Model the fold of this input.
Amino acid sequence: MDRICITGGQQLNGTIAISGAKNAALPLMIASLLTDETLTLDNVPRLADVALLKRILGNHGVDCLVKGKRAGQNGVAGETIELSANEIVDTTAPYDLVSRMRASFWVIGPLLARMGATRVSLPGGCAIGTRPVDFFIDALKDLGAEIDIDAGYVVARAPRGLTGGRITFPHISVGATHVAMMAATLARGETVIENAAREPEIVDLATCLTRMGAEITGAGTPTIRIQGVDRLHGARHAVMPDRIETGTYAFATAMTGGDVFLEGAQVDTIEAPLTVLRGIGADVETTNSGVRVRRNGAGLAPVDVETAPFPGFPTDLQAQLMALVSRADGTSHLRETIFENRFMHVQELARLGADIHLDGQVATVRGVDRLKGAEVMATDLRASVSLVIAGLAAEGETVVNRVYHLDRGFEQLEAKLGGCGAEIERLTG
Ligand code: EPZ
Done:
């Protein structure tokens, strides 16, 4: 298994190109199931999760054609993929594929809407929580679907097609909002989704679906209205920049000191983390082409932060923030409100010398003067990059094991950080 070896103490200076967002690319790729024409996606990040989803979609009969590099295209630009689901030959999403990536469960919406029947494995839990799918099932029932659970599979039927309805989510769910919106595009009549997730990735999907002929208003607000149409057609859409990658490298720069321009970052999707970063003491300058983060050697101030659905502070940056404030001049309190077990990184950060106390959903982080390199274990995607951030500032060598977690969501991490002066390398085998 690959490992990443970091020798801490180097400042980060230079430019990092922000890749397309994993959490936008996945639902956008799944939307290709809604039409028999070709959906072309630009700026798709080269990630393990994207590769796995290509396999899963291929199992349903979707052709995924990756376009080659074009003259003038720079090396970091994302892939252009043509997805063509002109015939769906299999409406079952099997356990051995769905269990590897929760988002693959989301194929249930488009498959049901287009084919009238589907059988999708329950995704199962993961390191950060049980992650049930009850909101998805209730939403599809609100659209007229008949749902059974049979031998670990969700069996959904809508032989006469879906009918628009009112969906009110009891709690905000990004995935359930994606799925309800996709299914509703082909339902007869109007669908109203209340308490919808407002994440930028929801807006990105709605923009793409609209280009495909869907009639959607209100994406990005708590209430989304969809007028069903008979069919959707092909379109072309560019994946939005990754706001979690942006925040990750912004925190890394504050951690090491230095001056980094995050090229292509979409500022309006990252305001809460940048506000926190300013409060900690970094200089943050936003332009229409990206975000510049500098820390001039001054100390890091502690902060109290609670994760929340967008536009609040994202749970996907909680681990990265914890690494940063582990070196603050004082005590910080981080409350995780989205997932019940998203503190797997705490024990690993403690191995590097961080002083963190957990009490239920609140982590109390007492800043320490120094972190010391050690061997640590990645447990989930965002936890693993928090260990990299800590390693960048730790004295000596840090080895992060199980970096396949990193490869799920961070494209060319070593090259991006190494290009700004970090001493970081991947040890294969
Ligand atoms: C999406 O996951 C993201 N994944 C997650 O990012 C992100 O942490 C999460 O949204 C919250 O922002 C992708 O976009 C691929 P939820 P999702 O449904 O949709 C509970 C990463 O690191 N819930 O918004 O699965 C659920 O258990 C990943 O890139 C139910 O109870 O998250 C959680 O506690 C990690 N029943 C809360 O809602 C349901 O039916 C929010 O989950 C659905 C969700």
Remarks:
- Residues 3-18+241-427 form a domain with the UDP-n-acetylglucosamine1-carboxyvinyl-transferase; Chain fold (CATH 3.65.10.10).
- The chain has a mean pLDDT of 95.
- The pocket of EPZ is lined by residues 23, 26, 102-103, 129, 131-136, 171, 173-176, 315-316, 338-339, 381-382, 409 (CB under 6 Å).
